[in-house]
Structures are given as structure tokens and as C-alpha cells.
Amino acid sequence: MSLLNIILQAASDGKGLAVMGAGIGAGLAAIGAGLGIGRIGGSAMEGVARQPEAAGKIQSMMIIIAALIEAVALFAAVICLLISFKMA
Q: How many whole angstroms separate alpha carbon 82 and alpha carbon 88?
């Protein structure tokens, strides 16, 4: 069965579109979190390379920001799961 047939079958009723949208939303949240964490890590490494004496401050700020990004991504994934379970 091709991907197009699966998508068309899921879109045949309104519930399929909601579940498909929830899945796409969860995927985008995961991709966004991965990009954010990667950017934080790269910037922190660059900051430590420029000012090694500030490594402790940079590391603590990096951990706090990474935790906030992960919290937002987890919230988005939970909302998407709630939507998909409500519609399925």
C-alpha cells in the first residue's frame, strides 16, 4: 500500500485529519527541540572556547535553557497525544 493511499484513507473522515495533524505536530516539536538543543550546545562550546574562565556560568545557563526547551517540547508532544487519543 502506497503512502498516498494511507494518507487518503486517513483523510476520508475528519478524525483522520486530526490524528494526522497531531502526529505531524509531535514530529515538528521533536525536530524543533533537537535543533534548539544543538544550537545551545554549539553556542556554549564557542563561548567556552572564547572565555574559558566563564565555563561554569555558561554551563549552568546552558542546562537551564536546555531544560526549558525540553519542557516545551514535552508539552507539545503531550498535547498532540491528547488530540490523537481524543479523536481516535
A: 10
* 44-82 pLDDT per residue, tens: 999 999 999 999 999 999 999 999 999 999 999 899 888
Q: How far is CA 4 from CA 10, 23, 42, 70, 80, in A?
A: 10, 16, 38, 33, 23
Q: What's the per-residue H, E or C state across the chain?
A: CCHHHHHHHHCCCHHHHHHHHHHHHHHHHHHHHHHHHHHHHHHHHHHHHHCHHHHHHHHHHHHHHHHHHHHHHHHHHHHHHHHHHHHC
Main-chain phi, psi angles of 41, to 5 degrees:
-60, -45
